[in-house]
Amino acid sequence: MNYSPTKFLTTRQLSRVWLVSEATIKRWADTGQLKSSRTVGGHRRFPLAEVMRFQIERGLGAATAGASAPAAAAATKAETFDARQAAEQFFQAVKRGHAGEATALLLEAHMHGAGLDLIFDEVVSPSLQRVGDLWYGEEMSVAEEHLATSTATRAVESLAASTRRAGAKAGAAVCCAAEEEMHTMPVLCAQALLEGAGWDVRNLGGHTPFFALAEYVEQQRPALVCVSATLQRELEHNARDYAQLSAAARAAGARVVLGGEGFRDAAVRTRFPADLHAETFKDLSQFVGTLD
Ligand code: B12
Fold first, then answer.
1. Taking Cα atoms as reference points, which of 245, 131, 223 lies closest to residue 179?
2. How far apart are the CA of 56 and the centre of ligand 1, in A?
């Protein structure tokens, strides 16, 4: 089933997303706590920006509905979500550098029941892959590629801010990209997904050597470590340092998840043993679901 993104939500949609009654939403609107307008037919319409403001202020919405959309809810609600269409629209928005539009698309996808894993795997990743293909084919300049990436990053950050669950319950996690690795978008996605699932996450960013991560794990003793590598440029060096991380994680009782193209090759994976070699964010979502 298709849906067409709008900048407004209805009372019913909000009721579904926030898991409160339509009467409560109408009361918030009528008392001016939640700004709305009316259609010619008299129905309330809530601007997306206002919805997000209120949601963050009250800790509502994605937080209560489950940021990674619990399987059963996602299975029914995500039926209204057309990932291909969303990916096309997201691609167009980031290509033009329209952060507001790109953000609205992601938020709306989430409000239509798409979990963060689905959004990252089927909207953000394919859109940026397209950007990369155009750049590689010299149909997009380096400047345009950078604009598209920074716009996509802003959109994911906004989505993360609205889906983060206050008061960590699930445990502490650390995410980063491996040494020499400047592709940090997947790290941001992992952070957003985990925070949405109630984890307290520290993001060390790009270019983090395994020995440095190992020291951090020894000191902070997180329950989960997620590392992304898009490229695998220093295989021998990384594999040597990785042993340190494995030992530190074992000592701290931390699980290790590796993801990204740089860890996809089966021979590479044997050099980097982990609790999970994730292909997708759906894999991560399912994995952390088993840790509850
Ligand atoms: C944005 C981008 C950049 C940006 C990164 C900015 C930033 N802050 O992240 C910049 C401009 C810095 C950059 C630089 C380079 N890039 Co670049 N870049 C990309 C691009 C367009 C998008 C990557 C991205 O963010 N994707 C979004 C994420 C969410 O999705 P994903 O990476 O596809 O990951 C999926 C899975 O692998 C998995 N996953 C990945 N990591 C993790 C981690 C965990 C924990 C989990 C659970 C899952 C997971 O989840 C995703 C599925 O949903 C890709 C295009 C492409 N095809 O990927 C090229 C691309 C990756 N880059 C490429 C290249 C060549 C480079 C440069 C070498 C260019 C240069 N000559 O300088 C440098 C290398 C820099 C470095 N040392 O790392 C090539 C790599 C080809 C190759 N395999 O050798 C690509 C494929 C472009 C192309 N078509 O040629 N790049």
1. 245
2. 31
